[in-house]
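Contributing: when you submit paired examples, paste them exactly as shown. First protein:
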Amino acid sequence: MADYASLLAPISEPDLLVRPPPERSEGPLGYLLRLAEANCMTLHELSGLGVRYDLGCLTRQRLLPDVALDPDLHAHVARLDFLLETSGRIWNQRYARFCPQCLAEDSTWRASWELYFHDACPRHGVWLVDICSSCGESVRWSRESLLRCQCGSDLREELPGYAPDNVRRLSAVLEDKLLCRPEANALPPFVGLNVDQVQRLIRYLGGYMDPGSNPKPLKLRNAGRLEVSWPISSLAAEIVFDWPIALHRTLDCLQAASVDGKAGLKGVFKQAYSYLYKGFSESAFAPIRETFETWLAAHWKGGVARRNRRLSAELLEKVQWIPGNVAAETLGISMARLRFLIHEGTLEGQESFSTSGRRFTIVRRDPLDQIRAQLAGELTMSEAMELLGIGKVRMQRILRLLFPSARRINDLPYLPWCVPRREVDALLLLGSHVPVVCIPEEHQVSLGHLLKYWNWTGDEIVALIEATKAGTIALQAMLDNARGIGRWIFDVAQLRALQKGMNSGRSNWVSIPEMAKILGVKQQVAYWLTQHGFVRAERLGTLKGIGSRVRREELERFRQSHVFGRDVAAIIGTSSPKAMRMLAEQGIYPLRAHGCQASRQLIYAHSEELQHFLAQVTGSSPVSFKLVSCLGLSDAS
């Protein structure tokens, strides 16, 4: 096979008997083979005579008409001569391929057939042929006849298969670029690209955008063979003719297929990312890089560091997926609360784990402003404490009493509380009409002093605040050197009267052991009920071991709203374990605390389902709750 190195040998003056001129769409090797055949030579022998595809050489050999007679032919030869000299890598010099139908219509070897990745005929929409069906060998340039294989079979008799339309269109783009037709710049992303750049784009898209490609997909062995090049050109054709949607969809697939979500751009896209900026450094590829950066800003779910100099500052500001710690800092919340917002669907985000077990959270930037506005209407318990001037221990005791609408950011007990800002602001606005003093009068005391030195319960403090809001107790003044509601100054006599009127004597309270006797349960069950909030208790002090107490009203509320499993079993006439199984079959379960911690004694919430079950089992009208809840209770009540 003759190669281009031999065709560039020093020129001699051969005496050719037949001098057919090249055609306007004919390829260099195809014309030289046709010229050699016309002179009963091989391509190698013609090369030995110094004949090569060169405008000057063809002119000296009188193989071209005068330039005035056919300027287009001279321009075509000059263009191919220039590409042979400057862009030798675009030519498929080793393997010959052709369209049998084109050869049957016109025995001219098209120039586009000699290009890499020109895999289909733009005119007939069939795959080009590079293997002879008679001998099974690749068609070689060292054959003696242009229209026959080296085995002697007629190439025009080959039966090609139909190619996908996008592959046909891609081959048409390559042909238009080669022949400088105006249609070549009609479609993005081909605008402004030459033949070499189009081939590099095809190799890049067909190699790097394939999730199953090898680590170095640009290094193709025998790329001139159709069986090697058609997978590359087919994938590239599907992407470029649905631009940029198909590219974005392919990048999404590559990102989803990544094992380590924290691998970064280079870890996810391998060399495809760096080649985009190093291999496509020319300005003609700027639209390609912009398309990638558009996807990066909208869909990339990994981190983008500011030290990445390939990406502009404007792009970094537009990135929609940001790390969770950045989102939490923007919103002014903890990572635990951020994860809860993602879990409940308020924020769009996702979590991933690296191979070492580290957790990474990413969040979409779009809704952050809206979420921040929503969060501005709530305060954490720490922020409410700071504004109101109340200590942590005191705030924990009166939080739900003072702010009934306060809630945890999740049902889990270790997550922080949220307090409506409007309720805190309403308290802070009280007393704006009273004078500000530096020292209270002798008959006056500030709320801050009361909280610190008076032994008031949480209920008494809440009652004082509610009375102040209702105007029952008037504010006398505001203390200058205090903060929050600790500035409020009251008349001592009014405070004593309020405390006396709350009936907070010993007869209204019971201890936890007394509560156990009243309910007829062990003390362990009574403590379990108070510890998990089923019966609200109030601690008598901050020191360990002092204990708690329960209001009789609270105890009565619990008795009216709950029933023990032993009492249900007594009505049914069976054992407690069997009664529990019968209730479970009806979807009625005993009380459980967070973490599925159950009491050692069965306790059920009174509900219509329970009443209906008892009526169905006993065959009578629904049993009154008062009767059920009081069965088995001690007379100590």
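Second protein:
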Amino acid sequence: MRWAAAETDDGGVRLCPLDAMGKAAGPVVEVPAARGGIAEAVRSRPEADRWVWRSTAEIYPRLLAAGVRVERCYDVEAAEALLLGHEGRSGAPRSLAAAWARLRGLPVPEDPRTRTAQAEPQPSLFDPGPPPLPPGTDPLDALLGVYAGQLTRTEAAEHPGRMRLLTAAESAGTLVAAEMGRAGVPWRADRHRQLLDELLGERYPGGLEPRRLAELADEVSRAFSGGVRVRPDLPAEVIRAFAREGINLTSTRAWELKEIDHPAVEPLLRYKKLYRLHTAHGWAWLQSWVRDGRFRPEYLPGGTVSGRWTTHGGGALQIPKVVRRAVVADPGWRLVVADADQMEPRVLAAISRDPGLMEVAASGRDLYAALSDRAFSGRRDQAKLALLGAVYGQTSGDGLKHLAALRRRFPAAVAYVDDAARAGEEGGLVRTWLGRTCPPADGSLAGEPADEAGLPREQEQPSYGSTAGARARGRFTRNFVVQGSAADWAVLMLAALRQSLAAAGLRAEMVFFQHDEVIVHCPREEVDAVREAIATAGETAGRTAFGETPVRFPFTVAAVECYADAKG
């Protein structure tokens, strides 16, 4: 049975059972704050198989702190964001108050400002709360009204069944995110300090740069003539210093610096690498984010328009390889690190229904190697460039030649992303397989990288469209249908893995996730069971998301004591 729960301003909760149409199916029950509020309300109703509430991120961490675990939920605000996007209103306010206002024809309140790693590098005690409902509004009435409206809107979607699955998966992802945030990544602060001391040297008082950075800064300055002091942490100053020596740069990005011959380049590149470590994961980061042997980031499921997760501060999704030395399992435990193998090409095979590409993706073998045997004379590098070029829009040079070979062998797959690019350039809405929708033509694509395949930027040339903006949107939508569908698969995989670990009664817990990688922290004796659960979750997610296809979704799995040992 489904139950709906809405908290009141005084910390109590109003709740009632629901029927299949989202309507109240029984009397309203009130649990005041003095009697435990929402934690007691949920704990005392084990028969509830799904909870409908405003926001998992706001409610579930408090339930977990009270020792209450929920099997399933429906996050009204997460669903509202998906439905708004599907209706061409991506970015519109998603709060319960905003959804209720739209339903009643009232002024729509803006959502609170979302924290980001750039805007707020450490946890805040002053986060704004959700916008309030109009005075006198019963929060349960608002919740039920919005929920019923969302069910109706879901049935009006292009593919209602897929949209139902997507909203359910996104809500499941919010539960996973809260549980991972509470569990935390095992983190050895002593090892972290040791590696900082090794790489950066001792710290100077007064907030000055550590010794190794100061030495490299001096080395950079000495490499330029004229005895002028150059601060390598200021790009404009570095560009001026090179200009004085007849070298014109447009930026201080590593790829551009590596193209010039100058004695300042080598120490400058080393400085940039260490400076990034110092500012992003240095002593200040360690003090702010690691407590009681755990790093607990706040995950934001669907934080990008493509559905990929982000975090509120902490840089959890950008842990440098060297810092992974500090991620160490508890004594007697292991970190089971699982990377999905060639996830996006496999997703392309599933959503395009290309017979040839599905056949290639039907085994656990390296997909690029299998592809190279079919169309590229055994050249794995060419097969990888061709397939990623099709997804990311590489259509010049060798990429164009490789793409032509790919098009001959796998026409349906290439046509699928070509159609998405064309629709994007023409201003149309483009959707993932389950229905997650890209922003409209005048929407923002901020935060959506265009070169995640590692392809040189100068090779990313357009193939359609009449304006630069249209072509850029086409490149984005070409990638969106694959990357977004991969994100949908990933959140279904997390949901299946969560369910499997709980059903088996294991002590194992998911502690980290990014894009195509998940880490489970478990007792050593549970490693084999966790490996099996991960493999099963990948295949279950594939069938659930894309139906019965021959495409497999294997993982490369390593069980290690230290995260740094998981990858070569």
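If you have annotations for the second protein, write them as plain sentences, like these:
The two ends are 48 Å apart (CA to CA).
The chain has a mean pLDDT of 90.
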